Structure formats: C-alpha cells, structure tokens
Amino acid sequence: MNSRSGTLLAFVTLALAAFGTVAMAADSNVGTWKLNLAKSKFIPGPAPESETVKIEPWGADGLKYVLDGTYMGKPMHIEVQAQYDGKPGPEKGNSEADMISYTRIDANTVAFTKLLKGKPTASGRAVVSADGKTRTVTETGKNSKGQDVSFFLVLERQ
C-alpha cells in the first residue's frame, strides 16, 4: 500500500466514524433525563418518588431505554428496546405493559403504544424541546385495574 492509498483509507475510515457519530447524535431523545416531579402530573396517582431515564441508540434505528427510580417506597427498574418502525419491542419491569412500539414523527417527537399480552393499554408522545433541555411525555390509557390513566411527565436533561 502506498502512502496515498493509506491516506485515502484513513480518510474514509474517519469519515465513516464521523458519520456514525452524527447519525447517533441526531436522535434528540438520547441522553440521561431526570423527572421533575413538581412539573409532572399522574392521574390517578400516586406519582413516583423519583425517576431517572437513560436513553441510548439501539439497533439500526431505535433506542434502548432504562428507567430507574422509586415508586411507593420500592425501587423500580424498566427496560425497553425498540426500533422506530412501529413494531412492538419488549418492555421489561412494567406490570402495565410487556411490549412497546415507537414511531418517529419528526426530529424531536416520538409516538408510542404500550401493549400487555398483545392488547394496547396506553399511547402517547415524547417531545424534546427545541433547546434539547426538556423532554415531555404525555400518555393516556387504562391501567390493569381498568382505570383511566393520564400522565404528563417533564424530564430534564442531566
């Protein structure tokens, strides 16, 4: 290999690495988010005492979502892996849903549907603010007791 082809190979390798980084960074949901309880609403309640959500790129075009927090004095841990293709992926650790599907609406908005044993239980949207500092999640549906639920979560980037 001569020095010219070596330089070209190095350039192509760097360009591909940079493209991959840009592609992953393009998802505004990626990051660590902390629930702001004072700005959030949980109907019927009770609200969790705390929630921190870590979101990472996953697969060809999706995300891995890990939520850790405290609810009614007990630790909670929920994990999700799903593509933005509208097809359900597993949701682990949530008694109200065992699958979730995501569809990207635009650069900052994702629609989702939660399912339990193949039946839809809730749906909503997650929207990242234009400045990238706040993520709001609205969700409506029914819980396992058949009660209507409505959540408005405000999460702040950490």
Provide the CATH top-level class: Mainly Beta
User: What is the subunit arrangement here?
Assistant: single chain
Helix tally equals 1
Mean pLDDT: 88
- Count of spatially separate domains: 1
Largest sheet, in brief, is:
10 strands, antiparallel, barrel
Number of strands: 11
- Gross morphology is globular
Uncertain segments: 5-25
CATH architecture assignment name: Beta Barrel
Kindly identify the CATH topology: Lipocalin
Q: Spatial order of the strands in the main sheet?
A: 1-3-4-5-6-7-8-9-10-11
Kindly state the percentage of residues in helix.
Answer: 10-25%
Strand composition percent: over 45%
Q: Considering the protein shown, what is the CATH homologous superfamily?
A: Calycin beta-barrel core domain
User: Which structural class best describes the helix and strand composition?
Assistant: mainly beta
Distance between the termini: 47 Å
- What pattern of helices and strands is seen along the backbone? HEEEEEEEEEEE
**Rg, Å, rounded:** 19 Å
